[in-house]
Amino acid sequence: MNELALNDVSVTARILGAAFYYSPDQVPDIIELLASGEWVADWHYGSEEQKQGIAAEMATMQRDDETLDEAYQRLFIGPYALPSPPWGSVWLDKENVLFGESTLQLREWMQANQIDIHLTQNEPEDHFGLLMMMVAWVAEHQPENLSELLGKHILPWGLLYLDKMQEKGDSPFYVGLSKLAHLTLVAWQDSMNIEVDKKLIFYR
Questions:
Q1: In this structure, is residue 204 part of a structural domain?
Q2: How confident is the model at residue 5, as a pLDDT?
Q3: 136, 19 Cβ separation under 8 angstroms
Q4: How many separate domains does the chain show?
Q5: Is 201 part of a structural domain of the chain?
Q6: Residue 113, exposed/middle/buried by CB under 10 A (0-12, 13-18, 19+)?
Q7: Which of 21, 39, 163, 177 falls 20 to 30 Å from 27 in CA-CA distance?
């Protein structure tokens, strides 16, 4: 990929990663950008029609009976079962557990490539938001490893996660965000001609 294309990957991955990983009150500028629709002209993935539709959804921000912070709590924290769990190992492990075998494989890959995301607490590295931020870092510092990160550790389950978020999320903002992430991942896969590892999916 040329430098301009890598910059597009880095910028969009960082925005998506922050929006999926952090609560809205932690990244108000990102939330405001996405809700404003100002990103549409500079987002070089998806058709204009797709992006305008997504922007209209995200502009709604929240339901009448649920704030955006409450939606984040419901979709990413709990206390009840999450509609679409954002961790890879929940999808790829027979027991649907955190810190499963796929998480350990990701850690080994990170160690082999000297990638450290400096987590402040003991949590799985395969959270979708963290992985998007890792994509941004790899695009900037190790672009030769970008296809492997996406093909082995994100795409085998990430699109299914986003599909279920669209189906079960029940939040205009986060459903729109999931659509945006989906079309972006598909565009990366196509533009980089990524071969995706075939892995069994155990979460339904």
A1: no
A2: 93
A3: no
A4: 1
A5: no
A6: middle
A7: 163
Structural domain contains residue 197: no
**158 — pLDDT class (breaks 50, 70, 90):** very high
Position 204 pLDDT exceeds 90: no
Nearest of 92, 108, 110 to residue 196 by alpha carbon? 92
Percent of the chain with pLDDT over 90: 90
Alpha helices in the chain (DSSP H): 3-21, 28-36, 48-60, 68-72, 88-92, 101-112, 128-141, 146-148, 155-168, 172-192
Residue whose pair of structure tokens reads 């995301």 in the numeric block: 117
pLDDT at 203 over 90: yes
Contact 183, 52 (CB under 8 A): no
**How much is the pLDDT for 10?**
98
The secondary element (H helix, E strand) that includes residue 169 is: none
- As a whole number of Å, the CA-based R_g of the chain is 16
- Is residue 198 included in any domain, yes or no? no
pLDDT of amino acid 120? 74
**Domain of 37?**
3-192
8 Å CB contact between 135 and 108? no
CATH number at residue 75: 1.10.3480.10
Q: Looking up tokens 């995200």, which residue turns up? A: 58
Q: What is the DSSP string of 14-63?
A: HHHHHHHHS-TTT-HHHHHHHHHTTTGGG--SS-HHHHHHHHHHHHH-SB
Average pLDDT for 72-94? 96
DSSP string, 12-23: HHHHHHHHHHS-
Mean pLDDT, to the nearest integer, of 101-122? 91
